[in-house]
UniProtKB/TrEMBL annotation:
This is Aspergillopepsin. Transmembrane segments: none annotated. One of its GO terms (biological process) is proteolysis. SUPFAM superfamilies: Concanavalin A-like lectins/glucanases. The active site is at E205. Coiled coil: none annotated. Keywords: Signal. Residues 1-18 form the signal peptide.
Length: 270
């Protein structure tokens, strides 16, 4: 009897050590980021989406994607030169019934929809693991991986402006301003794979890490305000942009709306 009780105690102790804590899971994700495994992908179109009316009750939603949600302006080559938008960093939550680490990313960019050769982009990741949350500011010129900015602190509720500017087809800048702290970080690119400058976008994404999409967090609503896209002949706004909702496993997870000055991306999943 004593031996059986001792064995049970040993097994319970072993199981406790085998299950990573929320802090350990968060540390694992930070380590993966340090290994440059975060990758934003071009839009992955859902070829056979569920009925739009059934999914959202809104027939204005034009497209569905497994990884993107937001709004995209589409034009001819060499059109879009810059994109900007401001949003409040959300407090990510685990989806209903979910456990472990869940993430999403809000960003602005040039290309990645009708042109998938390259994407110039910058944004903020928001991650939840148990009761812990973390936030990363990053820049990326796809097909390279994302790189984290240093010298900027982030908290839920901070007001953030994200901007990209293409100074040529193969070079440009990515800038993030934290209005809540007064910090600004920027990165200059050169000699990159050529952009088409056909797309300008404001996106909340289920990004790739370690070869697959990360488990998606519930971000509530991210609203990009003060949005605009610089063009070769002036500026454009997202009032007439293509709306993209995220659909995974036959379920629509977002509801997107636009106006001339903002793009709102609401999580509607579990």
């Amino acid at each position: 009897m004593f031996g059986s009780a001792l064995l049970i105690q040993v097994l319970l102790a072993t199981a406790a050590f085998a299950i990573p804590t929320s802090k350990e899971r968060l540390a694992e994700r930070v380590a993966r980021r340090a290994a440059r495994s975060h990758l934003t992908q071009p839009k992955q179109l859902v070829v056979h989406p569920v009925s739009e009316e059934q999914a959202t009750g809104n027939t204005t939603h034009a497209e569905f994607s497994s990884n993107w949600s937001g709004a995209v302006l589409v034009a001819g080559a060499n059109t879009f030169k810059s994109v900007t938008g401001t949003f409040t960093i959300p407090t990510p939550r685990e989806p209903s019934g979910g456990s472990g680490t869940h993430s999403a990313s809000a960003w602005v960019g040039i290309d990645g929809d009708t042109c998938g050769n390259a994407i110039l982009q910058t944004g903020i990741d928001f991650t939840v693991s148990g009761s812990s949350t973390s936030f990363d500011a990053w820049f990326e010129w796809f097909p390279d991986f994302a790189h984290d900015f240093s010298g900027i602190t982030l908290r839920a509720g901070n007001s953030i402006t994200v901007s990209v500017t293409a100074t040529s087809l193969t070079g440009g800048t990515a800038t993030i301003v934290n209005h809540s702290t007064g910090q600004t970080v920027s990165h200059t690119f050169s000699g990159q794979p050529a952009l088409c400058q056909e797309n300008a976008e404001w996106i909340v994404e289920d990004f790739s890490e370690g070869g697959g999409l990360v488990p998606l967090s519930n971000w509530g609503t991210v609203t990009f305000t003060g949005v605009s896209a610089g063009t070769s002949s002036g500026t454009a706004n997202p009032a007439s942009a293509t709306i993209i909702n995220m659909e995974q496993n036959g379920r629509v997870l977002t509801s997107v709306s636009t106006s001339s000055s903002q793009v709102s991306v609401k999580y509607t999943g579990p």
